[in-house]
Write a structure and sequence with these properties.
The protein has three helices and seven strands, in the order ααβββββββα. It is globular.
């Protein structure tokens, strides 16, 4: 009888952690889609937009539209990724692709790439701080319910 009761106990820490992770991912995606432009330099003088899915200090997940006739990059190492915070300023990190897989999101086909951020580049410290900011922001951010109007003085 005791085994049955033990199995019925719900671990609330796991539930809270899962909810916190979902909130973090939603916060990151909102941030990436509306405030930061993400591009990959594919050849001299040419960039393509990529969609940033998830980040950590050591890596990131990106996705590109699935097009069987062309690939986002032919290389798997030393890929420059630019994060634009304004139209004329960016932070560039360099990544190595560790895995890829097809995925469907919102009825569209994509290829999702798991990438490792190179830690020996000058921008890595800024990258770590950016990831840290997003982590803390996702913990304290609140959804704007629109209940306060903006006035003028």
């Amino acid at each position: 009888m005791k085994d049955t009761q033990d199995q019925a106990v719900v671990n609330l820490d796991q539930f809270r952690n899962r909810k916190q992770e979902e909130k973090k991912r939603k916060t990151e995606r909102l941030f990436f889609h509306h405030l930061v432009g993400i591009y990959s330099v594919v050849e001299a003088g040419k960039m393509v937009p990529i969609e940033l899915i998830d980040i950590s200090e050591g890596g990131l997940a990106v996705q590109t539209p699935y097009e069987s006739e062309k690939q986002w990059t032919k290389d798997t190492n030393n890929i420059p990724i630019r994060l634009y915070f304004s139209p004329d300023s960016f932070m560039e990190i360099t990544v190595d692709i560790k895995n890829s897989r097809p995925t469907i999101e919102g009825g569209s086909k994509y290829i999702r790439y798991g990438c490792e951020v190179q830690t020996d580049k000058k921008s890595y410290e800024a990258w770590k701080q950016f990831v840290s900011f997003l982590r803390v922001y996702s913990e304290v951010s609140e959804k704007d319910s629109g209940n306060i109007s903006v006035g003028s003085f």
